[in-house]
Amino acid sequence: MTVAKLVPVLEAATAGGYGVLAVNIVNGLTLRAVVDAAEELRAPVIVQTSVKTVLSQGIPETMSMYRHAAERATVPVVLHLDHCTDRNVLLDCLKAGWGSVLFDCSGRTLEEATEQTKQVVREARSFGADVEGEIEGITGVEDGVGSDDKSELYPLDDAVRFIRETGIDCFAPAIGNAHGDYPQLPNLDVDRVDSLVDATGLPMALHGGSGLSDDQFRDLISRGCAKVNISTALKQAYIDAHRDFLAENPDCHEPLTLMAFVSSRVSMVAQGLIKVFGSEGRVA
């Protein structure tokens, strides 16, 4: 059984100088494809669910799928709730057994964000779960969460104070990254990652990973981005695989054949990212 916790997985990644794929799954097929990819390459993996996905599938159903996949896996598999602004949904997921949650406070004042996150950390600890914090909005909309407007960046001292006072386990900084597709490679504020890691010793979560170059991934991971979020790339692979298969096989009416093709495509994307992040072969 390898139902894993976030903190030990990120601690090992930080010590080993690699990044852990944190990928947003959308259903049982993508969940199994991602876990199979991690097993094939002997890598830890963080399976993420958006609030939209959780509410669509149901909390008990999502947890059941995850436990079935994780308990038969031979690599660490973390279940993480991504970008949750609703304390009620967050608490329901913690009660159901999510191992970690991102409490997104980017729409709140710093004072309110600090107080609310402290409460979430206390709640999470009572369930043995870990917490990722966010106070600066990552540009772009993902699963109905976020905004295309640039968020105000807090001074470094404020961000460090938030991290220390709340007791979070991982922090998601805004460094010029964005959810969705990039029209061109972004100019990222890598120095901000250095400063936050130096001041707090905390692992950083890189959001908006889809579309960054391999060199950008490796550079940011070397600076302390131990958790690397991917969502758009997996969704695109999932949808495009359906289109490609049906275009090439217009007369096929066997769903299992289609599903096997789609699963293979999703697994290939996950394996490629695992290799870039340096986490291949990190699990004995």
TrEMBL record:
It comes from Nostocoides australiense Ben110. Its EC number is 4.1.2.13. Dihydroxyacetone phosphate binds at G180, G208, G209, S210, N229, I230, S231, T232. Zn(2+) 1 binds at H83, H179, H207. GO terms for biological process: carbohydrate metabolic process. Binds 2 Zn(2+) ions per subunit. One is catalytic and the other provides a structural contribution. Pfam families: F_bP_aldolase. This is Putative Fructose bisphosphate aldolase (Fba). The active site is at D82 (proton donor).
